[in-house]
Amino acid sequence: MPLHPEYDAVLKQLAATPGPALSDMPVADARAMYRMMRPAAPDLAVGRVEDRSIDGPAGAIPLRIFTPAGKGPFPILVNFHGGGWVIGDLETADAISREFCTRVGCIVVAVDYRLAPEHRFPAAVDDCFAATQWVADNAKAIGGDPTRIAVGGESAGGNLAAVVSHLARDRGGPALCFQLLAYPVTDAKLDTGSYRSNADGYLLTRASMEWFWNTYVPDARDRANPLASPLNSKSFAKLPPAIVMTAEFDPLRDEGEAYSKKLKAAGVAADYVCFDGLIHDFLAMSRQLSAVKPAMDKAVASLARAFAR
Hints:
This protein is of the alpha/beta class. Helices cover about 35% and strands about 20% of the residues.
């Protein structure tokens, strides 16, 4: 299928006013640019928003807790933002967290994990697992249901959600009911067909992914570690049910599909869907482009079904 006309128009507009790639900017500038690309959405009202800090393995971990209107206890989604483990924060996670909170009727806990290059692998993993443990231990205190906790994320956040699911299984908890993996990074090899066919021209490029990996896991020998590349995990059995969402014009498409196949082969209930005509990071445009509406509807419905079980 060709690129969706809405995305074709967006990419042509960007090409008409070219600027440096994120990977060519100083890290601070790349982070500022990403905040401009994914601004917070305070206009999307939820019942309550609370910024707080919890103790992590190497200091404080900031959280933003979105609670829907109404009476709980509510199910909980622990949301790990994308950005290649280098960029992204609570602001870039704000809009999608609010959308899930209002449309699913769940608490969303967005996690501001440590970023590279200041904090390299496995700092992000350690923070995300610690935050998930905190949510499970404090679910009732924040108005949530400790028996209905899901993890989710986009891109690098999808990578972290997958890794946290493995750790929760292997370390005796927390018990997770679902994992929402949106265009997740699952492998560091960068050698798939989708990497070859979508290397350039669709916002996320092969060069950008090389920069992200070099910044997050500079020692290439460490990238095979399942905590960095969860596709290399020895066992996929007894992981939470999942949805894996990818885009046709995304370098990460094939590794997302490969991950879903390993889940299914291990007997995990895993729904895989590739959205034709879309590019990486499509959920960020859910309120701007009609092309993305079916994908966001699918994510919302999948979470709602998981929480209803």
